[in-house]
Specification:
- The structure holds 3 protein chains of 3 kinds.
- In chain A, strand 5 and strand 6 form a beta hairpin.
- By secondary structure, chain A is α+β, with helices and mostly antiparallel strands.
- Chain A is globular, with a radius of gyration of 15 Å.
- Chain A is 32% helix and 32% strand.
- The relative contact order of chain A is 0.23.
- Chain B is α/β, with parallel strands linked by helices.
- In chain B, strand 3, helix 8 and strand 4 form a beta-alpha-beta unit.
- In chain B, helix 2 crosses helix 5.
- The longest helix of chain B has 45 residues.
- Chain B is elongated and about 95 Å long.
- In chain C, helix 1 runs parallel beside helix 2.
- Classes of the chains: A alpha+beta, B alpha/beta, C alpha/beta.
- At the A-C interface, helix 1, helix 2 and helix 4 of A face helix 2 and helix 3 of C.
């Protein structure tokens, strides 16, 4: 986890989503980690994610959203970093319950995070493909990346009561 | 903190007692006087004209449970049981029409009843009374809060469910002809409702094997960029399922909104009104269309 | 995991059974392109009913399939996209532009029949 000033990060939480995310404040009920090394691991990660989301009782269409977001995050790892891992967590915060997905890798890192996030989705082979899309699907989105160190993307989605 | 109790002659000089010790005294007092305090509380509830939706017997029964849970929370210092009880209680009384202010009212009344009885008991030892009240206050506040919040949360959940039911009922996806669906949208759409509409529509396309969908937005007064985006997404998703979309009732204002967010209206299939839209749909489906008032027939394209 | 490709008259039908890895998708693409040439097929139907997730890679590959098969003089149609999957795709911004889609196998075959018999004429196909 990059800690010095050169780390670039973006955190956003839409105002409507409730209390601000503070690491350590969320209660972790369950977690699982999937190592990502090949394209087959992408499927494992998204199926495990889907199962966790189902246990959380997300709606059927939200299950697909979650699985697809995980697929994109895992794919970025395979494509740009060759290996990394996906952490899946059942989290609770102030009466809400939801899923947290954290994709970590020691890949090349992203030089210009803002540009990557601004882009509407494109099917070109540019870096950060799909990240802006993933951000649209999730309630919370955080990204930390440093060139030469790696990238960590954390997303959360809450079950609407 | 070690409880240190030195009782001198006259009983007016106590060294610092721990909060736990004071609460224990309090709890035992509340238990000893349970019957009388509970009755007084129930009486005051009726006097204050609270819980009018319930009978005297019901009030007494619930008062008993609340009282016992209250005392137990004071005793154990844990509030999970109270929380669970509060939710159960709310589930019972909300359908009876009990309002939030009544629930808060009765909890505050109980606080008052208990505080007064403490005044009565310890009136000869002002210092001790103060210490007991100091121990009692935070716990009592927490209890009031727990019960009120439990009630409000339950109430919000019920309201959401009711709104949900209304939403589902008020936006049917209509099948008027084979392979043709109509989705009339009425009223102001918020993002959540927009999402539901799309899900219902897409499922409807699959179930009815629809090839053409007419989305009528005549009844939509305003549309912000978010919902307009959503409409565009709905059109795109419908295409992925192999169906054509015709949008009818597009007002100039909404057309402007769509243009502002970058939608190419030329690519969207729009028709002025619903009737025209249905005719266009039937034309696309290859039906013979005989417009009212005319005698010519449109042949199959 | 290989996807079975069936020949039905002038068309090829590929039914994806379950979650496909990236390599399998690429293999499917290559097989279809090769088979279209060998069988001289006029059309290809790719049935994605069993796909529970269509992500960026799957979308790209399906577009590749469509374009490459068009270069071979045949048309492709994608059928069976699930409602939830379609919804997720548009929210993610994944577009299947230029790729014809139909509801199911029956509609897909009907589409190909129209396309093949009325070449050049505007139909209510999904490929714009």
């Amino acid at each position: 986890m990059p800690v010095d000033d050169e780390r670039k990060s973006v955190t956003d939480t839409p105002v409507e989503s409730g209390p601000a995310p503070v690491e350590g404040r969320d209660k972790v009920v369950e977690e699982a980690k999937v190592e990502i090394r090949s394209d087959l691991d992408i499927i494992v990660a998204r199926q495990k994610g889907r199962a966790l989301a189902a246990a959380l009782e997300f709606s059927p269409s939200e299950l697909t959203l979650v699985a697809t977001a995980i697929s994109e995050l895992a794919r970025n790892i395979v494509q740009y970093a060759k290996r990394g891992d996906i952490l899946l967590r059942w989290i609770e915060r102030g009466g809400l319950r939801g899923i947290m997905v954290r994709a970590c890798d020691r890949g090349p890192g992203i030089e210009d995070i803002q540009r990557v996030l601004q882009g509407g989705y494109s099917t070109s082979r540019s870096l950060g493909l799909g990240l802006s899309g993933v951000r649209r699907l999730m309630d919370e989105f955080e990204i930390d990346s440093k060139v030469g160190w790696g990238t960590q993307v954390t997303v959360r989605k809450w079950v609407k009561r | 903190m070690e409880p240190e109790t030195r009782t001198l002659v006259g009983g007016t000089h106590h060294a610092a007692q721990s909060t736990a010790e004071l609460l224990r005294q309090l709890v035992s007092h509340l238990r000893q006087n349970r019957t009388q305090l509970r009755e007084e509380w129930a009486r005051r509830i009726t006097e204050a004209k609270l819980l009018t939706a319930m009978t005297k017997e019901e009030i007494f029964a619930e008062a008993t449970s609340v009282y016992d849970n209250y005392v137990e929370a004071l005793e154990t210092g844990t509030f999970e049981a109270l929380q669970a009880y509060a939710r159960g209680l709310s589930e019972r009384i909300i359908p009876r029409g009990v309002e939030t202010d009544e629930v808060i009212g009765i909890v505050l009344l109980l606080r008052d009843v208990l505080a007064r009885s403490l005044f009565a008991k310890y009136q000869n030892d002002f210092a001790l009374l103060n210490r007991i009240l100091d121990a009692y206050e935070p716990a009592a506040n927490r209890i009031a809060n727990t019960v009120a919040v439990g009630f409000v949360q339950e109430r919000e959940r019920v309201i959401r469910e009711q709104q949900e039911a209304i939403r589902v009922l008020s936006t049917p996806v209509l099948q008027v002809r084979e392979r043709l669906l109509i989705l009339p949208i009425i009223g102001v759409i918020d993002p959540q409702r927009a999402r539901q509409l799309t899900e219902q529509l897409l499922r409807g396309i699959r179930t009815n094997r629809a090839k053409v969908v007419v989305i009528d937005i005549t009844g939509v007064p305003v549309m912000d960029a978010n919902v307009a985006n959503h409409l565009v997404q709905t059109v795109e998703a419908t295409r992925l399922l192999g169906a054509t979309v015709i949008i009818t009732g597009l007002s100039p204002e909404i057309a402007q909104t769509l243009v502002t967010i970058g939608v190419d209206l030329g690519k969207m299939n729009t028709v002025g009104d619903l009737q025209g839209g249905i005719e266009e749909a039937e034309r696309l489906l290859g039906y013979r269309v005989i417009p009212s008032g005319e005698t010519t027939e449109h042949l199959r394209t | 995991m290989e996807v079975p490709i069936l020949k039905q008259g002038p068309y090829l039908i590929a039914s994806i059974q379950s979650a496909l890895g990236d390599n399998d998708l690429v293999q499917l693409r290559d097989s279809l392109v090769e088979q279209v040439g060998r069988q001289r097929s006029k059309g290809v139907i790719v049935d994605v009913t069993a796909l529970d997730v269509m992500d960026s890679f799957a979308t790209r590959t399906i577009r590749d399939i469509t374009y490459m098969i068009r270069l071979r003089g045949a048309e492709t149609v994608i059928v069976g996209i699930q409602p939830d999957v379609a919804f997720t795709m548009v929210q993610l911004g994944l577009k299947l532009e230029g790729v014809p889609t139909a509801l199911d196998l029956e509609e897909g075959i009907a589409f190909l029949n129209r396309k093949v018999s009325t070449t050049g004429k505007e139909t209510n196909a999904r490929g714009r």
